[in-house]
Structures are given as C-alpha cells and as structure tokens.
Amino acid sequence: MQLLDSLLAPNADESLGQYLRRLRLHRGLSQADVVELAGIHLQSLGKIERGRTLKLNHKTCSGLAYALNVPKEYLESVGRGVAVDFPSALKFCPSCWTVGMAPESMWLDLRAKCCFLCGMELRHRCVGCQEPITSLKHRFCPFCGTSYQSSSPLKV
C-alpha cells in the first residue's frame, strides 16, 4: 500500500497550474466544484491553471488542498518548484485503526502527530523493533512479529 496515491503527488516537471488541473480532472471535478469547495474565485483558479498565477497565498493554498484532498505541502512544494518530501512510513492510530482499513486521510498529513478522532499519538514505527511501518495490510510487524495495536511482541 502506498502512503498516498502516486497519482496525487506532483511530478518533477509539472507546473502549479498543470498539477492543479491534473488533480481536478483525476477527482472528476469541474472548476466550479473546486472553487466552491476551496472558497476561492473561479477567475483565480482559471489564472492558476493557465499559469498566470505562480504562487498561492495561505487561504488559497489551504482551500485548494482541502478541495482536492491533498496535503498542503504538495501545493507548496510544486509552487516553489522543489521536490515533495515524503515521510518514510505510514502513520496510523493504534486505537482507531483496524486491519484492512485504509489510513484516515488526516493521519497522512505530514504534520499530524495525534489522531483527530481519539487524540492518541499516531504511530509510524513498530513498538517492538522500531522499524518504519510501510504497510497496514497485516496486523503484525514483518520484522519482529509485534502487533501494531498492542505494545507486546507476538509470543510463538
């Protein structure tokens, strides 16, 4: 399982306008849908997609990130022309997560430290061996057998 859909990450040679248009079309949204969700003007989105606006202010960046369901850091990175810094592991709430469940989108926010549902600290490493968690397909760490939801290693 990927941390985030690779289609949502900006490409190295992509402009801000190209990236936003690709995301919008990938989500099946019209410009009108996006501006309504983002709380910005239609003309503003049109200028961004045509490459006439190259930088986003805080309100526009936050609104577009919300509307297109991507981390704000993606938009900031592509706007600055730098590569996106991906976290090395998944984050999840050991209390709210169940096996087979995709991680909540809020857990994937690069700045998220605690679960927005229960307030528990998010985990990104195995408590048994401290290896980064790279998949949530299974309940146990593939390196040491520790359950992702408990703090004791699996006894065999």
Give the secondary structure arrangement, pairings included.
Layout: H1 16-26, H2 31-38, H3 42-49, H4 58-68, H5 72-80
Helix pairs in contact: 2-4, 4-5
Descriptive account of the structure:
The chain is an all-alpha fold and 156 residues long. It is 30% helix and 0% strand. It has helices spanning 16-26, 31-38, 42-49, 58-68, 72-80. Helix 2 (31-38) crosses helix 4 (58-68).
Shape: elongated
Number of helices: 5
Distance between the termini: 27 Å
The biggest beta sheet reads: none
Beta-sheet strand percentage? under 5%
Give the structural class. Answer: mainly alpha
Q: Cα-atom Rg, whole angstroms?
A: 18 Å
Question: What labels would you give this structure?
Answer:
single chain; 156 residues; mainly alpha; disordered C terminus
Short description:
The chain is mainly α and 156 residues long.
